[in-house]
Sequence to fold (577 residues):
Amino acid sequence: MKLLVTLKRTPQRDARIRISEAGDSLDLDNVQFEVNPFDELAVEEALRIREAGGEVEVVVVTVGGEECQQQLISALAMGADRAVRVESSGQLDSLRVAGALAAVARREEPDLVLAGKLAVDDECGQVPAMMAGLLGWPQANQASSIELSEDASSLRVVCEVDAGLETVTLALPAVVMADLRLNEPRYASLPGIMKAKKKPVEVLALDELGDAGSTRSRVTGFRALEEKPPGVRLDTVEELVRALEERKLV
Amino acid sequence: MTDTLVVIQAAAAELSKSDLSAAGFGSQAASAAGGAYDILLLGPMASSLSSTAAGLGARTVFTMSSGELEAYTAEAYASAVEAFLEGRSWRLVAAATSSSTKEYFPRLAALLDVPMASDVLKVESSDSQRVVFTRAVFVGNLLATVELEAPRALVTCRASEFEPPAAAAEPSAIHEVEAPSELAHPGKSFVGIEAASSDRPDLKEADIIVSVGRGTRGLEEGIPLCEKLADTLGAALGATRAVVDAGWMANEFQIGQTGKIVAPEVYIAIGLSGSIQHLAGMRNSKTIVAINTDPEAPIFDVADFGLVADLFDAVPELTAALEKRGG
Ligand SMILES: Cc1cc2nc3c(=O)[nH]c(=O)nc-3n(C[C@H](O)[C@H](O)[C@H](O)COP(=O)(O)OP(=O)(O)OC[C@H]3O[C@@H](n4cnc5c(N)ncnc54)[C@H](O)[C@@H]3O)c2cc1C
Ligand SMILES: Nc1ncnc2c1ncn2[C@@H]1O[C@H](COP(=O)(O)O)[C@@H](O)[C@H]1O
Fold:
């Protein structure tokens, strides 16, 4: 069985991102990067499927520049077997990233693609579902549990939807997007980190994958949130009730 | 081509607040582009919702349902909309952000080969080639301007940021459309859904939300106090991730980056710190009240009214004061 995990390099989860002085780009000079938290869950889930038995290969893939190498190595250090990086620079929109990842999926022919449900930088939540659409594969979003059938031909997935917990089954191959409660990602062990450096990372050019798309969706600027005037500190519940009543809020 | 189509999932007996907001988005986007807007009701309740939907100022209300659309799957819904759009032209195809549209709209974008913007807050401008939106990025800490350059685009909109459309003088035309006889939904089946039953209002519909954090110490301790407050106010109950992870409340109550995004009239945050991921889901609430023992808790940075107090004293006192006033 082969599992393909898509992974994006994103700023550390609690980083405060600021706008550059010019106002239209981001000041990322002092920002640390990591594997997008939801992709870390996807890597972890793939490793658990492998550990549950059988012949399973875990391949991680990212679309991005040289700087993403570190995040691929983090996933290899967690235990993934090998990595693929699709070389790209500049802004690609979600559909182009999905196109490149779908092309990698056609080459690798995985039984299952595991992705994150959301990249915490652009917060689009688009790429994996687009990938599923391009491949014509079934998909499940916001997965909080995944169970492989005994003959490894289908999956039972529990998804955290607005109304509660939805259960679906998917025939493989399929695309599944990890949500927060899917698992607790492990830390890379020291031997894992040592081994990661020797694991293969294949670099592919975007046009090798038949990328013919153009980027049609672009971020053209950033703004800070509107400043909210500071609130009022109250000392007693009585004052709070009065304040709410005065504003006719209760 | 300057028209907007708003797709509404017709699964419940009534249109939700989000559905009305999506219609509001449609009318706003169409008027920005100088066009009209239409509604597509998709799913088992499509016909029965059509007369209500016809009062929302759309040009036409289309309805589509079939056995395969009875239970929602991303695969069937995406291919139904794809089939519906065949030979018809709209500038924008829109829906309110929900767990369903998060799943099937990007799939649809791929099937149609058109760009998409997720969870937009505002339409900046729209013409036949370019549409510009504002949306939140980086855990809601920044706003980005996003330009889609294409004659057709998909968009999901954050319901809390769009008012329902003004009441229409004339009802829309209603047009029943046949669903394609075989919808492509490769290999997917719906097994079932498990929802926590609750008599309280839905998070997305509520005017007041009482939201609880780890500081409540669980079901045996602070949560019942907060439930009592919620019931006194007729409020919905919400929670942080920590509360859901601890198993104190079900996942559908989580508010934040990975839960629901809400903006009620009043948000009462109790024993929660105000992590950036939580703020991303509630910072646009009209009035925020925070009760926390830690004067440095970040929730106080966004609170309109902050009370540094032990919730185990303050919440019962607040409930009692409100009850007395009511009775
Ligand atoms: C990728 C990612 C996504 C996430 N998505 C979400 C999300 O969608 N929603 C979400 O909520 N979180 C999310 N989180 C988690 C988030 O980072 C925080 O861990 C979480 O919000 C903390 O919950 P809390 O405020 O209940 O708990 P804590 O941060 O532990 O805060 C508890 C608070 O209670 C106060 N307190 C304690 N005792 C009392 C008392 N007796 N009276 C009054 N106050 C008291 C304390 O002072 C403290 O401020 C996400 C995290 C990641 C990494
Ligand atoms: N450049 C990329 N390379 C690999 N995977 C990606 C990339 N961008 C997005 N993804 C995957 O798609 C998920 C959702 O991303 P997004 O649509 O950008 O929110 C991420 O969690 C990743 O699993």
Chain A has a mean pLDDT of 95.
